[in-house]
Amino acid sequence: MEKITLNVQGMSCGHCVKAIEGSVGELKGVSKVKVNLEDSKVDVEYNASEVSLDTIKETIDDQGYDVQ
Amino acid sequence: MEKITLNVQGMSCGHCVKAIEGSVGELKGVSKVKVNLEDSKVDVEYNASEVSLDTIKETIDDQGYDVQ
Q1: What 3-state DSSP class applies to A60?
Q2: Helix B14-25 and helix A14-25: axis angle, to 10°?
């Protein structure tokens, strides 16, 4: 199990939290995702043999946010 | 047909626009609703014989925003 904290710009409200936690949380191999609005950070726990970090980043990007 | 511009605090992103325009737009008697994020304003055109201003304000409030 891998743990990473991503910096994500553009998250501003509860809808943003739902959009990101919902979409990333649905990915096979992701066991935990938590958005921190104040810090513009997203904590993700995932199994690298099931899902790539690129896929996680793309999923957030697809929701309209800028992953750094 | 009445026209009003409401000051609404807490709208911050595209999801907020959808939440407000969707819910207010579904009210019977509302013919137009437009959110302006930059100005924190919501323009509404409605038929006062079909829907009250209080109902419109309550609908926005129910989405989690502060109508002033």
Answers
A1: helix
A2: 110
Q: Please state the length of chain B.
A: 68
CA distance B28 to chain A (A): 25
Quick one: which H or E segment has residue A59?
helix A53-62
Nearest residue in chain B measured CA to CA from A20: B15
Helix, strand, coil shares, percent, chain B, to 5:
30, 35, 35
Q: Which two tokens stand for residue A52?
A: 């790539």
Q: What is the DSSP letter of B54?
A: H
To the nearest whole Å, the CA of A31 is away from the closest chain B CA by 25
Q: Determine the distance from the C-alpha atom of residue A52 to the mean position of all C-alpha atoms in its chain, rounded to a whole number.
A: 12
ipTM reported for the complex, 2 dp:
0.72
Looking at residue A32, its pLDDT comes to 97
Contact criterion met (CB < 8 Å) for A19 and B15: yes
Q: Whole-model pTM above 0.90? A: no
Contact A13 B14 (CB under 8 A): no
